Amino acid sequence: MARTGETERDLRERPLGEVAKELTGDVSLLIRQEIELAKAEMTQKGRTAAPGLGMFGGAGIVALCAAGALTAFLVLLFSIFLAAALIIGAVLAAAAYLLVRQGKERVADAGKPIPEQTIETVKEDVEWTKTRASSARR
After folding, report:
1. Which tens digit of pLDDT belongs to each residue from 9-58?
2. For the whole model, what pTM was predicted?
């Protein structure tokens, strides 16, 4: 590893093989660190999105129940008047709607399923590597 505060002149005086070996080690370390950062970032996004996705599943189940209740209401409407089935169907439909809205908000809070922070730091690492390589060539 390069010493802190090492100048370009110090780098130019060192053998090229030593600088190249150090640069290779630094790049390898950066790659490992970026992979770890990407894993951590994607884990966090997954934890944020999971409850919202669960709410979508719950909304689907409740919507299926609402459809069943409304179907039962329509069937029974032709035989006898039962407002209870309509009320139950409407309540279940409202519950499904609320779950969908909350689930959508949770999933939106998680953001895009890409490690944005990692991408930014990789760009910085590439610039750093270019700077180090050009300093060593001079």
Report:
1. 666 777 877 877 887 888 888 888 888 888 888 888 888 888 888 888 89
2. 0.47
CA distance 50 to 88: 29
**Interacting residues of 120 by C-beta distance below 8 A, sequence separation 6+:** none
Query: Number of helices (H) and strands (E), helices first, in the chain?
Result: 4, 0
* pLDDT tens digits, 75-90: 677 666 557 677 777 8
C-alpha Rg value of the chain to the nearest Å: 30
Q: Please check whether residue 101 is in contact with residue 85, taking contact to mean a CB–CB distance below 8 angstroms.
A: no
79 secondary structure, DSSP code: T
**Distance between CA atoms of residues 89 and 85, nearest Å:** 6
- Helix, strand or coil, per DSSP, at residue 130: helix
Q: How many CB atoms lie within 10 A of CB 114?
A: 12
